[in-house]
């Protein structure tokens, strides 16, 4: 067999292995949906819902975690009841081609940041943040303006 053919076979095998490694089936999707609704759901309860044994569900969860499909199990809180009544989204556009100082500023203020995304389109980043007071928010924005222009959207009500 020629070198080219062997390389093609190896490459096809690697692609096939990669697809198999990260593919999830309908049952995995059902498990994920249940966990998204209640991340504290017991394995036994999940097993009953998806009609599998508890050990099988446990193995699927381990595989989903190892493959990075499940990144973490989290908690959703009502920010207004935890002392953070100001909930905002901030679109940022860099002033400088280098984002290093901006990212360092965000890292230093991560206690306020719920989510931070690199985006394309009208802005460079989208951030979801929370603050205890308008004074805190104002100080954050004044310092942010050293690195980026921004636009703020205030959350009035969480619909869900």
Order of SSEs? HHHHEHEEHE
**Mean pLDDT, rounded to whole units?**
87
For the terminal residues, how far apart are their CA atoms?
Answer: 60 Å
Strand portion: 15-25%
Q: What is the count of β-strands?
A: 4
Main sheet summary: 4 strands, antiparallel
Q: How would you write the strand order of the largest sheet?
A: 2-3-1-4
> What percentage of residues falls in helices of 4 or more residues?
40-55%
Any low-confidence stretches, pLDDT <50, length ≥5? 15-20
Oligomer: single chain
Tell me the Rg in angstroms: 22 Å
Shape: elongated
Number of helices: 6
Helix/strand/pairing category: alpha+beta
Question: Brief description of this entry?
Answer:
With 160 residues, the chain is an alpha+beta fold. It has helices at 3-22, 26-37, 43-50, 54-66, 100-108, 134-144; strands spanning 86-94, 113-118, 125-131, 148-154.
Main traits of this protein?
elongated; 6 helices; 18% strand; 160 residues; 4 strands
Task: Write a structural description.
With 160 residues, the protein is α+β, with helices and mostly antiparallel strands. Helices cover 46% and strands 18% of the residues. The chain is built from six helices and four strands, in the order ααααβαββαβ. It has helices at 3-22, 26-37, 43-50, 54-66, 100-108, 134-144, and strands at residues 86-94, 113-118, 125-131, 148-154. It has a four-stranded antiparallel beta sheet. Strand 2 (113-118) and strand 3 (125-131) form a beta hairpin.
């Amino acid at each position: 067999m020629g070198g080219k053919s062997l390389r093609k076979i190896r490459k096809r095998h690697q692609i096939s292995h990669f697809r198999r490694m990260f593919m999830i089936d309908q049952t995995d999707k059902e498990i994920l949906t249940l966990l998204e609704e209640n991340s504290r759901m017991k394995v036994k309860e999940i097993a009953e819902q998806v009609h599998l044994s508890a050990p099988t569900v446990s193995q699927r969860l381990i595989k989903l975690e190892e493959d990075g499909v499940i990144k973490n199990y989290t908690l959703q809180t009502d920010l207004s009841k935890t002392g953070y009544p100001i909930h905002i989204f901030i679109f940022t556009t860099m002033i400088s081609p280098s984002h290093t100082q901006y990212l360092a500023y965000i890292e230093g203020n991560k206690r306020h940041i719920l989510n931070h995304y690199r985006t394309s389109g009208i802005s460079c980043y989208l951030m979801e943040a929370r603050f205890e007071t308008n004074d805190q928010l104002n100080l954050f924005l004044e310092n942010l303006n050293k690195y980026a222009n921004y636009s703020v959207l205030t959350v009035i009500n969480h619909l869900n």
